[in-house]
Every structure is written in structure tokens, then in C-alpha cells.
Fold these 2 entries.
Entry 1:
Amino acid sequence: MSADAGEVFDLGYRGYEGHRAGRWSRRDAIWRDGIRASLGLGRGVGGKVAPWLLLGLVLIPMVVLVVVAAFVGPATDPNDFELPSYADYHGWAMVPLGLFAAVVAPLLICPDRRDGVLTLYAARPITPTDYIGARWAAFLTVALGAVWLPEAVLFVWNVLDARSPGTFLVHNWDVVPRILLAGALLASVLATLGLLVATFATRRAYATVAMLAVLFIGSALGGIAEDDFSGGVADAVSLVSLPQTLDDAVHWIFGDEGDRPVPGGVSFAFLVGLTIVLAAWLVRRAKRLLRG
Amino acid sequence: MTGVARPTVVVDGVSKWFAGVVAVSDVSLVIEPGVTALLGPNGAGKTTLLRAIGGLTAPSQGTVTVFGENVRRNPGLYRRIGYMPEHESVYDFLTGREFVELAARLQGLDDRDRAVRRAIEIVDLDADQDRRLKTYSRGMRQRMRLAATLVHEPELLVLDEPLSGTDPAQRLHLRDVVRGLAAEGRTILVSSHILEEVDELADRIHLMVSGKLAASGDYRAIRQKLDDRPFVVRVDCADPRRLAAGLVGIEAVESVEITGTVGLRVRSRDVASLQRSLPVVARELGVRLTRVEPLDDSLESVFEYLATGTGA
Amino acid sequence: MTAVFVLTVRQLAGSRRLWLVLGLVSLPVLAAVVFRVGDSTTTSDRFADNVTRTLIASAILPLVMLLFATSAFGNELVDRTLGYLALKPIARWRIVVSKLAAAFVVGGVPIALSGFVTVAVVDGDGMKGAAATGLGLLAGAAAYAALFTWAGLVTRHALLLGLVYVFVWEATLAAYLDGIRFLSIRRYTLSLIHALDGARLATLDNPLSAAGALVGTAVVLAAFTALTVRKLTRMDVP
């Protein structure tokens, strides 16, 4: 063995010539990971408590109500017991769903930021838009599932409970697209907001509190604007109360407008616009985080 | 041996367990002024023992006495103790100097500025002291943490893996620092899982394996025992019996054990000559070797050997 | 002791967070200004009460105190830097009180000031209501600080549990169930404001007396501070 000249050995190293999965499978991988993270899978028992508890709170009350309705029978006086309307149940569902967005959305973003994993993502052939889009899609999938399920249960029950399910279905087929739209609205607003807030924090706790602050403080402000002021400006400010505005929009979707200062249609348009703006902002944040 | 006034640290029958894991099992030892190294593979219980010595955790059984007092729930004792934990995290937003100043302030030092200056000088970080710790490299952070640990000139210094993340130059420098402090009569307790790191550093070592004290004593004596250690090499081949017969004849081979139908375990004290002889014997006998693998290269087996006197 | 106090203030009031809190506490003040210049549909008394109650005492105060107080020790535990404080010859109570005070100052004082200014702007007539609001909020902030600082040291889930306490316990149960209304910091805050100035929060349902509210606050402050000190003394420092 020569002592001075160096030698490089050919160990038969090869580059990878095989199949490389395309862009969709990259997105799919992050999406799947996002779903797992949202449901607390792979994080032991403690990690599952928050998501499953909150998602359960969205679904289970409806299940309970339907079971009670089944036992109570059709001849009951509506004053004693009545199933909630599709629109009204969303009013309840948004509470645990909002908490879910506040508590679980940070799990998709903040650990990546804090552990410095984002640079790993950035070093792979994945665009920032794909990354945040996949994360958003994952969270949205879970949220949609959560909000559509109880409504579906209610609808199915109503169909089965009708004297003639066939006719009922024919007359009420329009409920289905309404359910889909209302659920989509609720889920997208909360998901986009939750993720956006999370991109501003490195610790999950801060993101959670920030999201809740937006919801609760917005609600308080909106309430004040509505109760204590009058006029167009006040009505506009009352839109800041997301829970209230969401409720109005959902009722409008189900054709059930109450006597509100801002018409339901306007609330709906506002929320759609808001979601688009927030989504654009979210993409900008993602670009900044993955480049920086 | 003339009696030392009183050993700095007395660990008596200390055990510590949590959640079904016994981290430290009935360890008794005594630490005196000078440099002592606590060695052992990862998971051996070194950090847990050090934490018990530092009062960060209460032993499940046994007592720890430092300067003759119970170290637990005795914050006043920390005037005389400097403890550097294994976690490398610091207050990112502070500058190096502010970090050391914080330590000095919390120690209640009178001449704070002088002590801080001296501590930073000792670790040779004068140039970088006004930068935020966030911008420091790992080795620099370790050194600044050390500065904060010794700013109050403690009589007892407990350093948990202080050499991790340091390059060889920094290691030499730290060694000089530690030896300098020991020369002033202080007691220094250092932990590490790399035997070579404590070369020239420690006078006495204590070895821990799986929570138990495996060996104590003079570093050089233990080192010598190491060189005597027989190695075990696993050899898989087509005809083990035939190869075994041939290997037994080699002087470097202590024993050959036949395991199964394809394997041998060869014990030898002289690995270099085994390396030379094995292929020659195999070729002469026409036996094809499929696998040659040292079985106990790990530090753990080294320690195991020292603890029980037998190899793997 | 001041060293730990200053350190914690720096930890909590990172520049972005500070602006956020300042933004939040200016919201009620803004609402008050709008009230004075715009068309409102309600009296100044009712408006001041509404803002104090729904915006400040039930939303801003608990959320901000929750954030800062649970982080006082929470950050140290997560970052594993508690050792730098615990391995020093300082009495444990000094560490606890410094951290608590920092959370109180960074979170509570701005909120109390905002309450003071808001009521002063709305109800230009005399400072009594404003002062009552400010003091009541200070008391509430101190109690929340003690409770949440303790929670932050004792459990990893301090934030979640704090949220449950504020938005389930205080919002719902303690509001409606008479027997336990004495166990709500929100109630101490609002009752104290009313006790100091009867004109404020006159519509409060079954308020506690000034003595009751003060005693409640003092008990929470003392008890949870003591519990935190106890925990710090006995715990294994990470």
C-alpha cells in the first residue's frame, strides 16, 4: 500500500436512476402527514386527547339528539323536544371547531418552524405553495369531515323518519348542497385563519391564544358594535365577530334569514372574500418562511 | 495516605428510579479535590447521578452529601457549587456577557464586573461577548456556559458532558482550564462517554454501566487493563470446523468457539496478527470466508469487561 | 430578585408580542373614542359596562394573563433553562415572586390602564368610575397571574387547562350556578369594580361585596404563590 499517494476507490456508487414520484405524490405525502398530525396519530395518548375530544364535541351531540328523537317518537310536541335545524346546529358546531382550529392548526406549522425542519422542506423539490396548500388541504379535510358528518346524520334521519322517504328526498334534495356549502364555509374560514395565525408563532401556545383572541375579542367587538351603535359603519364593524357572521351566513344559506343588521348574503360574501384574502396571505407567509 | 480534611462529595448507597426504570443502582463513592471523571456509555446513569449530586433531583434511596450538608433543598450551598447541566439551551436573546452577568448577579457577587471579565477571559471569549447567544456556535455556547458556571469561583464544579460539541483545539483549552482550577484546590467532577476525552484530564475515574458503579480508581491503571483485553471476532465461513482447527494453531488466538453450522467466535489478544493470519490460514485450508466482524468494539463491552472481568 | 424579574420581562415581552398586547389593549380605548364621536344607541353607563365586561374582563384580561403567566415558568421548562435559576443561592420564593410580578407587569398593568382610560373617555364625568375599573382589573390580573403561573410550572397542559377554566368554568358554570360563584376570578374583578363605584356594572347579578372580592383575590394570590413555591422547592429541575 503506497504511503504518500492518495487513492479513491470505486465502490460502485451510483446515482439514483429509478422512478421519481411526481409533484402530486409530494403534495400527497405532506397532506397525509397533515391528516395524521391533525388527528394526533403517532403522538401517543396525550396527543390524541385534544383533537378527538374537540371533534367528538362536534359530532356526538347530534348523534345523541338523533338517538333521543328515535326513542321519543314522532308524536312528540315540538315544545318538549325538537331536533335542531341544519342551520342552528352549525351554531354549536363552530364552537368546538373553532377550538380545534386554535389548538390543532398550530401543530401543523409551529413544530416545523421551531425545530428548524422547514429548511429541510425547502431543500426538497417542493414549492412553498405546495407545502402550505397540502397542509391547508389536510386540515380542511379533517374539519370538513367533522362538520359534514353530523349534518349528514341529521339529514339521513330526517329522510328515514319522514312518512314517505322517497317524496321527502325529492322535495328536500336541495338540503344536501346547502349542507356542503355551509360546512365548507365554516371549515375554510376557521382552517385558513387558524393556519395563518400559526405561521406567526414559533410556540404552539402563543398561536392557540392568538387564534382564540381573534375569535373572542372579535366577538366582543362585533357585539359592541351591534348593540351600542347604529349606522352603516357599525354594521360593517359587526362583521368582525366571526362567530356571529358565520352564523348569519349559514342561516342565509339555508334560506332562513332573521332580522339582522347585515343581510345574510352580505355576510356570506364577506366571509368568502375574507377567506380568499387570508389564503393569499397564508401563501405569502409560507413563501417567506420557506425561503428565510 | 494522609487524611483529606473531608471529601467534597459523599454518595452513599444512592439509587434512583422512575417509571419502572432504574437509572442509578446502589452507587457509593467519594469525590475529593482534584479532577474526577464519571465515565460510562450513554444511558449508564451518569447524568442522573450528577443531578442527584447537584441537588436537582432527590435520590429514591440513599444520601448525597456535599461539603458535609444535604444538597437537596439547600439553595445556600450553591454559593460553593457550580453546576453545568447537560442541556445546551440558553437564554438566546442575551449576549454572552449578559448571560455571565446574570449568573454573577444571581450568585450575589460583590465585585461582579471583575468576576465576569475574568470568567470570560478564562474561556477565551472576550471577542464575542457582546453578541447574542443565538449567534454562537455550539462550542462557543459551551464555553460561555462554563464561564457562567465558574464566575463565582466555586469550590465544587460539576460539569455534565462539557466536552460535547467542542473541537480538539477547544478540548485542549478546556483541559487546561480545568486543570488550572484543580491546581487551585478545587474539586471538579466531569462526565463523558468518550474515554479518550478525559485523557490527561482526570486523575481518578468512576465507571458506570447500566446504573451501577463498574470501576473506580486511577485512570492509568484502568487504561492498562484495557490494552490487555481480548477481542472477540465473529467469522462466518463454509467449513467452520476445518477453519477452527487451523486457527487454534495460531499463537495470537486464545480460543475458538463453534457456533451453529456456519460460524466461529475467535478470541484473541492481538488483533493485528489475527488480521494477518486469518486470511492466510483460510486460503491454505481452502475455506471460503463469508463474514468477518468484531463483536465487541463498543464502549459498552469495554466497560462490561472492566466491570465483570469477562468479554462478550 | 430584580435580575429574574428583568429576565422574565425580556422573555415575555419579545418585540412582536409587546406590539400585539399594546394593540389589544388599545381596542377598548378605540371603542370608547368611537362612542364619543359616533352615533351610539345606548347610554354611556351601559356602554362602559358592556366594554368592561365583555371585551376587557371576559376576553382580553384572561387571554393575555393566560399567555404571559403560563409562559413565565412554561418557557423555562420547555427550553430547559430553569436550572440557571434554580442552581443559584436564591430563596425559591424570590424566583416565584419575580416571575409572577413580571407576568403581572407585562400583562396586567397595560390592561388596567386601558380599562381606566376607556371608562374615563366614555364617562367624561369624574374619575371615580375609571379608577374603580382600573383597580378592579389590577386585582383580577394579580389573581390570574398567580393562578396561571402556578399552572405553567405544574403541568405541560397549562394553556389548555387555563382555557377550560376561563371559557368553560368562569363563562358558564360560575356565572349560572350560585354555589360556586365565589370561585371565579372574573367575578372578583367585576364585583370589585362595582363595589368601588356603584354606578359601574350596576346590572351585575349578585355581586360580591368589596371585602368578599378582595379576600377572594388575596386568597388566590397567596395560595397559588405558596403552591408554586412549594412545587419549585420539591420538583426535579429538568
Entry 2:
Amino acid sequence: MDRVKVKESASKALFAAAAIVCIVAVVAIFVFIIIRSIPALSKIGFFNFVFGDVWNPDRFDNYATEVLAGRYGILTMIVGSVFSTVGALIIGGVLGFFTAVFLARFCNAKVKKVFSAVINLLAGIPSVIYGFFGMAVLIPLFANISPTGDGGGLLVSSLVLGIMILPTVVALSKTGMEAVPQELYEGARALGATHEQAVFRTVVPAAKSSIIASLILGVGRAIGETMAVIMIAGNSPEIPGGLFGSFRTMTANIVLEMGYAGEVQMGALLSTGVILLIFIAVINLLFGLVVADRKKSKGGKKFSLGLSAPKWIKPAAIGKVISWVSAVFVAIFLAFIIGYILVRGIPHITPQFLFTDYAYGHDPSILSCIVSTLLLIVVSIAISVPLGIATAIYLNEYTRRGSKFVRVIRSAIDILSGIPSIVYGLFGMLTFVVWFGGSASILAGGFTISIMLLPVVVKSTEESLKAVPDSFREGSFALGAGKVRTIFKIVLPSALPGILSAVILTIGRVVSETAPLMYTMGSVIQPMPNGFLGSGATLAVALYALTREYKYMDQAYAAACVLMILVLALNFLAGFIGKRLGKKFQGETNVVRKKKRQPAES
Amino acid sequence: MKKILMAILSGILAVGIGVAAVGCGGSGSSIVVVGREASSGTREAFDKAVKNAEGTSLDDYSGENNPDGEEHAGYVKGAVYLGGTGDVASRVASTKGAIGYISLGSVDESVTALNIEGVVADEANVLNGSYAIQRPFVVMKRDASKGDLQDLAADFYSYLTSEQAQGHMEEAGVISLTDTDKRDGQEVTQYTALTAKPAEGDKIVIRGSTSMTDTISIMIREYVELNKAWCTNEMFDLQLQGSSYGRSAVDGDTTGNVIGLASSAETESDTRDHFNIALDAVAVIVNPSNEVKDITLEQLFDIYTGAITSWDELTAAEE
């Protein structure tokens, strides 16, 4: 009996420890970045930093110098980030909203199924591919209509960011609209409204808070995006002068200069990270408020028609047409981006490119990058998956729902998931890289990206655990099983499909990340890595490196192609496992449930 | 049926909007200024060479001692700053009105290199100094007062100083340098391959300029080939992020295995041990459709500071 008790409390301690590691990670990032930015902020002056409009750093400025030679004002970048985010919101938000309306109310089940898969694909495409596509295709295209003659800048950045946030907007708004009680719609129809009127005047307003929440999440994603933006925006530290004006975002500022920054300059970059964190915190807060509001309004509050049924949609039919156009536009855009990269890339995927080890001074090949990517996956999964699952188990199985401790951890995890990836990169470069011998390595990259993945794993595991009915647990307890046994024999197996597909999506994330890895793991194509302490570029980083080398555009397309196929395959695999295993386990567990209920009932 | 019609109609509309947006072209005569990010050695070399009539260089202009008293964080407002040679070349190749600068070795038929002050960018003109925008490729190691390099890194460094290394500069698209003065005092040496790996050191860390990617890759290839009895590609740890990145890596070298690469000259005040391995011209490139073939340094200065904003002003000046 004692042995069982020891086992129980030991496991509980282990799970709790994992949860604590999660908190420590968040606190560490916050404390580290804030503490390292304070000297710079006090040297530069907070006001000068935030409202200064000249960014002209001097590498030799240090904290001992009396007068700073450089100027460190990031106002232009704050404006740049805000402008591009607003642009993304206008494009991605509108397209996403109408596409969601289309999916929720204007198409049949088959179209909806295919289309939802398409939207998920959009979410899976790595940002470096969006950037590459923008640079290689959209900028030359838009150069034709640009009054300045240059196609890059605010408009194309907003367009690309808009497409990138679209999946987030669509997924959440669609779910919200589907959750609107059918009676509302039917009531509207009974009063003589057409289908279109019923949708735009009753269903949409009823789903208002979900739609707003989806837009807020989209804003978070747009403001944190790095790679796609630096390849398109033009990066000059100035307030964008018009739709085709060159500008720099805060994330771009960090990634452009972190490689060689001097003392004060590095402090200023960290401070840029702090400002980004503030933005993200505010966005999280807004999101929390909107979601809380949604929960309240479920209690039969009168749905207000105010915001979401703009009076200008006089004939709601226009809304319907726009929904169709949005959906078709999204489909065409996706088909174009995938098709273009496949067509340009596939002819250049040669056996030499794929299967020979890269040697300096020879044509690029990506075998070593694939190996580096695999090693990175091993490290990051080995760290983030056990930790994340244990944290999720602790949160879901051991704590009272809604206790203070849990709320603290939850909000910590939410914030962790909102931090722009480049801030992780900055953190990793200043900590893990230093710890692991001062030079970029797979281990350093792995640790960096693991912290980034933790919230993803925790959240999706929690979702799967929540989906396991409580009757399973009660049945298990009733039969005399302990907590640990229940978790490992009953709860985890039932939640396995969800967890597995989450792990695969996590792998997809590792494969597609670029910004946090450039300075922690390696930035150019190299021969086979020397084990985990060696450096190496992942496929996504290799693609970025190839686009910077003019001679290898064909190889860049080929690398983009390989990367995209890989990520799409992982997405399909995740979906497949989620569905197939889900069915299988559902069947088995149903049987289990029946068997267990019998003794309980008798 | 209605649905199908709807789908077709909206398809046409979506495509139509796209075509309309792209169809109404703008004027191609305004200049799109393309440059490199601040850490770039190519940019440093370009900024130092391009001067106006008073002798103010672009480098002074964007620095804090700008003579006109105003502060400029860089080029003219609206300039585009890109991260690599490839970005610049592809932007210029795809944008009618663009002007940019890249390493001469990377120029191909998709862009046109302009003559500077009537001088063609070629090897002879770079060597005799008549082509104005040129820079050395610099190889750096930490100052001897901080300690010598580890034997392995030192051996690679001695290969870089050698005559054998100079034999491959043409392949790298840069101009071989054998004159001791031009090499900043470093004589051309003879390199003898080692029969066994030096005991000290197991890694050669190379950090620095993206412009030197080709040059250093070929150097490593040849070095590995010469020492194939013991040397492998895996002994090299190569990260290229810009000249400043190379300099700060050499400054921060505590183990003695870092070799830095910079694509702009070291100044008197710099304390790193270094030599110039090759010369490179910075070619000023424009779109092939551009009629301008010749440009002066003053015009370049005016373009990059915004005094000239249209190609018409240049073509008018030529006539």
C-alpha cells in the first residue's frame, strides 16, 4: 500500500515539476529580456527610445561611454509594425471573415470539407516560403503598378501577412458562426428574411465575439512575423511613405542587427523585444476580455446588432457575393503559390541536390540540411513533448479546475505562445548559444525552439485530455485503480490520437521556423553536422541562405519545393492520424466504457 | 446550377480584380534606390567611395558627422535595404527603375553594370585603381597580443596567405592580389600541406561577410583537397552574416580558432591582425531595360541622397 502511495506522490511531484519548468521558462525569458534591456533604456532614455524617429546605431557605443554616438529611436519601427499589421488585418481580416461566412453558411458539406483542409494548408506553409514568394513573384508583379516603380513595401507586406493570418481568422470565426444556435437563423427566416439576410443580420452578429477574437489572434500573428516581412518590406527605418513605401518592423530590426550588435545596440534590440512583449501582452489581454465577454453573453443576453451588421450591406446579397469572391480568391491564391513553387522547383530537384553531402566550393546540396533538421527535431521533441505532456496532465488531472495556480500557469502559457519567434531567437542566442560553447549548435537551436514549442504541446495535449469523458476516470477509480494507473492506462490512451497529431504539427513547426534558428543553430549550408554540438542550417534556413545568393535561385526554388512538400505531408499525416486513430480508439474505448459500466451499475 | 454560376462569376471577378490591379502600369522613370543593410561590407565600400563635389562621402552623410548638420539614418527616404547580394540582384533584375550595388563577381546578364566615370568595371581597371568603387577582401585573426591562433586554424590561415590560394581567385570571381603593399604588408607565402592533423585545435571557426561566400568556400575546398590525408569539411564552422559580424567574432575570440572575413578595408585604428587576400569591384547595377550606361560618383551621391529622383534627369544630362 505504501509503495502505491509513494508512486502516486512521486508521479504527482514529477508532473508538478514539469509545470513549474514551464513557468520558470516564461519567467526566465521575461526577466532576462527586461533586465538586459534596462541599462540600454536608461542610457538611451525610455522616451527617446520609444518616440525617437532616428535609428542610427553605433556598434562601438557601450554603457561606459559618456555620450552615445548612435541614435536609438524605434518610433518608425513601431509605426511600421502597426501599419503592416493594420494592413494585414484589412486584407486578411476581411478576406478571412467573408471566407468564414462562406464556409459556415454558403456552401455544401463537401466544399466545406475540402476548403477547410485548404485553409489548414495555408496555415502550414512556412513563413520563409511566403517571403520567398513575395520577393520572387509579388514584388515584380506589383512593380508594374507602383508609382515609385518599386513593388515592395507596405502593400505587398500587408497582402502577404494578410494571407498568413487568414487561417487563424477563418478557423475561429467559422467555429463561432457554426456554434450560433440554429433557432436564431430559423427565427429570422420565419420572420421573412432571406437566407442572406438571416446570415448577415442574425448569425454574424451572434458570433460577433468569436469574430473579434479571431481578428485579435490574427493581429498577434501579424505583429510577430519576421522572415516574410524582412524579405518584402524594404527595411529602411522610416515611416512608410505610401502603399509602396519601404519600412521596417520591430521584428525585422531585431533579426537584421542582432548578429553584430555592439553593447548598447544589443540592449536597444532587447528593448525592442520588450516593446514587442508589451504589444503581445496587450493583445492577450484584449483577447481574454473578448472571450470572457463571449462566455457572459451566452447567458441569454440580447444579441446586439450594432457592430457586425453594417448598414451599408443593404441587400445582404452583396455580402453573399463578397463571400464567394473571397473564398475563390483564397483558393486561387493558394493554388497559385503552391503551383508556382512546384513548377519552378521540381525540375531542379536532382539526385545531386538531394543526396550528396555538401562540400565547400561545390554546388549546393541539401542532404546535410535535412540531417540537421532531423537532429533538431529529435532534440526539440525530446525536450518539449515530455515536458509539455506532463504539464498538461498536471493541469488537467491534478489541479482543481479554475484554481489560482492553474490560472497563473495558463496565462503564462498563453503569453509564451504569443511571443514572436525572433524574441526566442534573441533569448537563445544570448543564453543557450553561450552555454553550449559560444557558437551556434543544434543543441542551442533545439533548446531555443523547445521553449517555443512548449505552449503548443501543452495546449493541444490539454485539449485532448479534456475531450476524454470524466466517466472514464470515474470508472477506473471505481474499479480500484489509482490516479497514476488511471492516467496511463485510461486517460492517455484515449487522448493519444490528439496528442500524436499535436506532436506531428509540432514537428511541422520545427521544420518551418527560420528566425529563431539563424543565430542559434547556423545560417549557411554546411557539410554534415558534427553531432549535436555541431552547427548546421535547417531546410528553411538553407532556403533563406540560397535566396541571398543570387547564383542559386533555381536551387532556392528546389529547396522551397522540398520544404513545402515536407510540411504539407506532415499536415496530412497529422490530420490522418487524428482522424483514423481517433475512430479506432473511440471504438475501443466505447467498448471499455460499456464493460466498466456494467459492474458499476449492477 | 445557381451555385455553379455563382462560382464561375466570382472566379471571373477575383481574377478580373487581379488583372486590373496589375494592368494599369505606373511610370518607369523614377529611381528605386536599393542598398544593403548596415552590417554589409559591400555597403561600407560603396558608401566610402561615393562622394559629392565637396568630397563628402555617403559614409559621412549617413554618419553623425554629416557636414550639412542634419542627421540621416541612411540613404534617401524610401530606399530599400536588403540582406544579401542575391536579394539586391533579383530586386534590380525585376524592377525597371532600380539601381543597386553588388560584388562584380556576381554580375550576370540579368542586370547591367554601369561604367563609373566612364571606366568599365574589369580586372585591369580595378588593379590600376581607375575604377573607383573597389574594396579589398580582408582575412582577420585576433591580435597576436591576445595569443596566437591554435595550430589548426593557424595552418589554414597560412594557406590563405599563400601563392596556392591566389591561384583560385579567378574562379571565385575576384581579383588576385600579390603585391605586398596592397596586401597590407602580408607577403605571398608558400604553403606545404601537413601530413597529419595538428595536435592543437579541432575546429576552424570562420565568421564574416556574405560577399566572401564563394571565395572562402573555394579556399576550404582546396585546403581540404591538399590535406586530404587528415582534413575534412566537418572541421570548418562557417557562419556568414556580414563583415561586422566577422569583426565582432574576431574581437570576441577567446580560444584562438576564429578567422574573420570582411569585405571592406580595415582602418588604422583596428587592432586585428589581418591581410588583404583579394580585390573586388563593387559593380553599380541597373535593370537591363535601363538606357543609362554610364554614371558619375557625384550622380550616384545625388541618387542615394535623394537629390536626383528620376532617370530622366540623368538621360537629359547626357544629351
